[in-house]
Amino acid sequence: MITPPSTSYDITALVSDAAAAPSLHNAQPWRFRYRRDSGILCLFADLERALPRTDPDNRGLYLGCGAALLNLRVAAAAAGLDPAVRLLPDPADPALLAELDLGGPAHPDKALAVLEPAIGRRHSSRHPYHEEEIPGALKDRLREAARAEGAELLFPGPWHVALLLELVRDAEGREAVDPGVRGETVRWTGTRPSSGAEAREGIPAEAFGPRSRRAAAPVRDFAAGRAVPGRGCAAFEQNPQVALLGTAHDRPVDWLCAGQALERVLLRATTDGLVASLTSQPLEWAELRWAVRDPGSAMAHVQMVVRLGYGPEGRPSPRRPVADVLDVV
Q1: Which residue in 308, 3, 327, 328 sits closest to 139, CA to CA?
Q2: How far apart are CA 28 and CA 101, in angstroms?
């Protein structure tokens, strides 16, 4: 435990919560640096964990780091802190994504603090969900969570959901014939159960969920055509409840905001008894991404496709030790 002098917070605990965020292929592309003298906690992109073929512009990397930043803010609020946050504070250092001043006056955001218990419970669930519809009041809370971080959350109609499933299938076909993309999927996923404490990153076989009996399913199949011992198949919901999270612009700062909005939506959903999974495949191909947006909405840039509903909780994916991602100077 690293508790700075004359403070009441534990940097290790804060970073542990931050690092529980979702990221593309669970690559965990973040690093943290705490400056004891100033009380500043810095979030950096770990570009060695980028996926250049799957995520060539690092949009997904920024979303993952934004999600980690939101978890950090939630954990800080739960610890009674109200950190001042600066995004992309140094144009000369593009890897420095955010600075949090933990030493200022403490007026914690209660709306964030109540989400802290959900950080450890939030896991992607790639299992079939029940057909039970999400109540309108709960959808409104999820929309409010996205708006609080400068993004929008849209629940498209049935015709658009059907189109999204076709786009997912199209993206899977493109991935299947692209050796670079397939190679990154193979690198970051395993077809056998993880070895417990030794697992530190990527997506283990037990988190894949079952194969779909239908051609198109609202989940990403990380097996990528590989055999997975003991993996069964199942019928997924006929009417998946899908949401589009998007922003007005499409710059790195917007990706960071979208990542924070995404994680705030996921924590709100977890708190309210929902499970979720993310489907980014159609967004990873420029030729398909434009078709994901709803032409009848004002959402200019879709940043993530989120499947929500009621069903079994997902299995946790491994995490790197805090000592591997945190430097104290």
Answers
A1: 308
A2: 23
Residue with tokens 């779909």: 212
Task: Note the pTM of the prediction, 2 decimals.
Answer: 0.95
- Of the chain, the percentage scoring pLDDT greater than 90 comes to 84
pLDDT of residue 216: 66
Q: Indicate the length of the chain as a whole number.
A: 329
How many angstroms separate the CA atoms of 312 and 23, rounded? 21
Residue type, 178: D
The partner residues of 301 in beta bridges, in order of sequence, read: 247
> Cβ atoms within 10 A of the Cβ of 199, count?
16
Tokens of 224: 């990528």
The two beta strands, 30-35 and 326-328, are parallel
- 31 three-class SS: strand
Examine the pLDDT at 212 and tell me if it is beyond 50.
yes
Across the chain, the runs of DSSP E, i.e. the strands, are: 30-35, 40-45, 84-87, 96-101, 152-154, 211-212, 233-234, 241-247, 275-279, 301-309, 326-328
Q: Tokens in use for 162?
A: 């059907």
- Rounded CA separation 327/12 (Å): 10
Q: Which two tokens stand for residue 153?
A: 């959350």
